[in-house]
Design a protein that fits this description.
The complex is a heterodimer of chains A (about 400) and B (about 450).
Chain A: H1 2-10, H2 28-50, H3 52-77, E1 81-84, E2 90-93, H4 105-115, H5 124-138, H6 151-162, H7 164-167, H8 185-188, H9 193-203, H10 211-217, H11 224-236, H12 249-254, H13 266-278, H14 285-301, H15 315-319, H16 324-331, H17 342-362, H18 369-377, H19 380-386
Chain B: E1 27-28, E2 34-38, E3 48-49, E4 56-57, E5 62-65, E6 74-75, E7 80-89, E8 95-103, H1 124-133, H2 146-156, E9 160-165, H3 174-181, H4 183-197, E10 201-207, H5 211-224, E11 229-233, H6 242-250, E12 265-269, H7 270-280, E13 288-294, E14 302-307, H8 312-318, E15 328-331, E16 338-339, E17 353-357, H9 359-362, H10 375-379, H11 386-394, H12 398-403, H13 414-418, H14 425-446
Helix pairs in contact in B: 1-2, 1-4, 1-7, 3-5, 4-5, 4-7, 11-14
The chains are: A mainly alpha (about 400), B alpha/beta (about 450).
């Protein structure tokens, strides 16, 4: 016992820290890398339907982002130095915001840029986007945590308006190649569903009663897989509910439509989001408010384009197209550029939803999510200011309750 | 979750880690060879020493007289000889004069039969005096002398007593075991407190999911004729803190800068109520308490009934010593407890737990840049914005920090627990409060 006593007494705890003495097993790096992981199935789907070049675009985006981040950190902070701390251990000495290469934030920005590029985009476009995202959007304001716009989205918008033709020429995904599609398949071969609809709206050539029937009228192709699955669903499940699913939605859901590399597969993006919720990387406020405000307005006003009156919008079509799901779970929820309190997040999400609807319906470009999000990003400081949580024991007006 | 109450916003669900201690019966720790007995084991003014070097003291003898309203009596937990009076550092960082008593002579209480004192005929004032004479202080957190608290409550006409059996800190099981093993005694203590305070309503708060303790207490309550109502609360941290407890049970909020008394409520911990029972019924001074010794670095963790003044090293030793070198040694729970470097620090009236945490349990705590995620904001039970307060203090904008509610922070640690950037938010806010207090003091001194 006495030797045990000496042993107990001789132990020097290396750290005398303040409370709390332990932490939830989470870190900024964990959040970033886990998001990368949750996004990768959808990125791989893009590779599957568009071929290796799509993966090349993503790889170039990620590499450009990481290299750019590395150079900026090196330029600003110099080399990492090792020092000995008071407890006698070697520690890496660096400013708090210089660890961003390891924390995965640059890689995540690169991945998001890559996933929002058209598969056939010239490689200088994602490179310029990555440099713009990191050097201009992220680091001019101090690096991780201080940027006031989502770097990937701001960069996407920047290159979209700089190289619009390159950013709007799309490729047919593999499952749709060679599919019978009426007589005009060549004319629409390179249009996204929303792009096609926007063209018809702008030219005033709408004679369909909804977006899906417009696509069909224009001869938009459908995969055999869509036909089989739709038929099976209708025969075995939906028939019991008294419902009938028209063709085309399964293609939208699994990602058999032309579009950006990573935005197509609603299925795999949803799958990733389950894990994002499970690990509490994202919380319900922003996705729920964004989804419901967007769906609500699409439902009320979406049908007016087709002269079917109010409350006839095709919500399922709207949420499965235009990168909505990618934005919903992975972009609007960016911790840095979204509000902090629950109520603030709901205000922000609702705002993004309304703006997405407005831009898609009345704007001159077909997709609205990127602009809507970076627009609302700018209002985040203001939202934070007006949506502070209600303080315990304090009445409105500031005096003690 | 229907019918299970809780506080309003914020809160976290920390890793509970009670499995190694929750089913361990309380055992009596060895009597220390030398007891270190600080004269300040409570909030407020230290007791006035009544002994000198070389004096012989008996078990339970008064060795420190209360120095006023905000002070409490101190008794010798062991018989022996006062070796010297020295200054010691306490777990909370304060220092206090302490008597070192070397074990010697006979025990007056240990192993002897005790008779129950018929307290029913005492007046409330006599009960409060009996409690105070035996050195009872709050044993859950801040160690406010019970006499001071109860007299104020009587003056303010408090109508509600909340007995706090929530214990929402991870690892700690001392109160839980006490409720299981001493339910009848706790309930008798409640009846004494009820009478001493003259309250109309009594609530016994317990965390949802601690069914064994809830059953024990429930049975004891029914057979005692106490009017106390057992309330199950959601097991969410910091449900055991006064303000969250008052909100959950009464629906009222303690006004900013106030105390539960402002809502007509008194909160007493179950360990305090048990001490009241021992003080009044057994006429036993507060000379021991239940302490949880836990953490991954402890070989054989458990719940120990410990004589006050026992050095922490003795407790660790009693629990089989360290399995491996602990990364941190903590007095109290992991959310609010303080890291210590010196195991010769004694157990005092407010010591709930001693934890020796391993590297893996502490987790990574490397600080990185704030990513404005707002997890701290959503975790704060007081509706504050910890990251903003931290930045105000970092930029020395103390007035803005005060306006944003700095003083309302009761340092529960929920914000820093969830922070993915591991920013020491609680430390920052503590520093800010100290600077603000110093400034106010300087300003007043200048007048």
């Amino acid at each position: 016992m006495s030797s045990e006593r000496e042993r107990v007494h001789s132990v020097q705890p290396p750290v005398v820290a303040g409370s709390p003495q332990f932490h939830e097993r989470t870190s900024t790096a964990m959040i970033m890398w886990f998001t990368v992981l949750c996004l990768s199935p959808a990125a791989l789907w893009g590779t599957y339907v568009y071929g290796w070049r799509a993966l090349g675009v993503i790889a170039v985006s990620v590499a450009a982002s990481v290299v750019c981040e590395f150079l900026i950190v090196r330029f600003l902070f110099g080399r990492d130095r090792k020092v000995e701390n008071p407890a006698g251990r070697t520690e890496l000495l660096r400013p708090r915001n210089a660890g961003t290469l390891r924390d995965g934030s640059a890689a995540l920005t690169g991945l998001l840029i890559g996933m929002t590029m058209p598969p056939a985009v010239p490689l200088y476009v994602p490179i310029v986007a990555a440099v713009f995202a990191l050097a201009v959007v992220k680091w001019t304001f101090g690096g991780l945590g201080t940027n006031w716009m989502n770097p990937a989205l701001a960069a996407r918008v920047f290159v979209y308006f700089s190289w619009t033709p390159q950013m709007t020429s799309w490729t047919m995904p593999k499952p749709l190649l060679g599919m019978p599609a009426g007589g005009t398949v060549d004319a629409i071969a390179a249009a996204t569903p929303l792009g096609l609809i926007k063209t018809h709206v702008v030219t005033g050539m709408i004679a369909a009663d909804g977006p899906m029937s417009l696509l069909r009228q224009a001869g938009y192709p459908r995969s055999a897989f869509d036909g089989n699955v739709t038929e099976w669903l209708n025969a075995h499940i939906l028939v019991h509910l008294g419902a009938n699913l028209p063709g085309g939605y399964v293609d939208l859901f699994v990602g058999n439509i032309p579009g950006a590399i990573g935005e197509g597969s609603v299925l795999l993006l949803l799958l990733g989001s389950v894990f994002m919720f499970g690990r509490r990387i994202i919380s319900w406020e922003i996705p729920a408010s964004y989804f419901f405000s967007f769906a609500f307005f699409e439902w009320i006003f979406g049908g007016t384009l087709y002269h079917t009156g109010f409350f006839s919008g095709d919500v399922l079509f709207s949420v499965c197209t235009g990168g909505f799901v990618l934005a919903l779970f992975y972009m609007a929820t960016d911790p840095v550029t979204s509000p902090m309190s629950s109520s603030g997040m709901v205000v922000y999400g609702t705002g993004v939803g309304i703006l997405t609807f407005l831009i898609r319906t009345f704007g001159s470009i077909p997709e609205g999510v990127a602009l809507a999000i970076i627009f609302m990003n700018m209002f985040v400081p203001l939202i934070n200011r007006v949506t502070t949580p209600r303080r315990y024991g304090v009445r409105a007006g500031g005096e003690a309750a | 979750m229907l019918g299970i109450r809780t506080f309003r916003g914020g809160g976290v669900f920390p890793y509970e880690r009670k499995s190694r201690t929750r089913d361990k019966r309380i055992w009596n720790a060895a009597i220390p060879g030398i007891a270190v007995i600080p004269f300040l084991q409570h909030s407020g003014t230290p007791a006035v020493p009544l002994v000198r070097q070389g004096d012989r003291v008996r078990e339970g003898m008064l060795i420190g007289r209360p120095a006023g309203e905000d002070s409490a009596a101190v008794h010798s937990p062991i018989p022996g000889i006062v070796q010297e009076l020295v200054n010691v550092v306490l777990p909370n960082g304060n220092s206090s004069l302490a008597a070192l008593v070397a074990l010697d002579g006979e025990f007056d209480r240990l192993g002897k039969e005790t008779r129950s004192f018929p307290w029913e005929n005492l007046t409330p004032e006599e009960l409060i005096d009996a409690i105070a004479n035996r050195g009872v202080v709050g044993m859950g957190g801040e160690s406010v002398p019970t006499r001071q608290k109860y007299l104020r409550a009587r003056q303010a006409g408090a109508e509600t007593l909340i007995v706090n059996g929530v214990e929402s800190e991870p690892y700690v099981c001392a109160d839980y075991r006490l409720m299981i093993e001493k339910a009848a005694e706790i309930v008798e203590g409640i009846r004494i407190a009820e009478k001493a305070l003259g309250v109309k309503h009594v609530f016994f708060a317990i965390s949802n999911g601690r069914s064994e303790a809830a059953e024990a207490v429930g049975t004891a309550l029914r057979s005692s004729g106490s009017q106390a109502r057992l309330i199950q609360l959601q097991d969410r941290y910091p449900q055991g803190d006064e303000k969250e407890l008052v909100r959950a049970i009464t629906g009222k909020e303690v006004p900013s800068g106030g105390s539960p008394l402002d809502t007509g409520t008194v909160v007493s911990n179950v360990a305090t109520v048990f001490a009241i029972y021992e003080a009044v019924v057994l006429q036993k001074p507060l000379i021991d308490r239940v302490v949880t010794v836990a953490g991954g670095a402890v070989r054989n963790p458990g719940n120990l009934k410990v004589r006050l003044g026992t050095p922490l090293a003795d407790l660790i030793e009693e629990c089989g010593g360290f399995r491996h070198t602990p990364a941190r040694i903590v007095v109290g729970g992991p959310m609010t407890g303080l890291g210590i470097f010196d195991l010769s620090i004694p157990v005092t009236k407010g010591t709930r737990a001693v934890l020796a945490l391993s590297e893996a349990e502490v987790g990574d705590a490397t600080e990185t840049a704030c990513i404005q995620c707002g997890r701290c904001v959503r975790a704060c039970p007081m509706g504050l914005e910890p990251t903003i307060l931290y930045k105000y203090i970092d930029h020395q904008q103390y007035d803005r920090a005060v306006a944003a509610g700095l003083a309302d922070c009761h340092e529960c640690g929920a914000c820093a627990y969830v922070c993915p950037a591991h920013i020491p938010l609680v430390q920052g806010l503590k520093v800010g409060k100290r600077v603000v207090d110093d400034r106010i003091r300087t300003r007043e001194a200048a007048k």
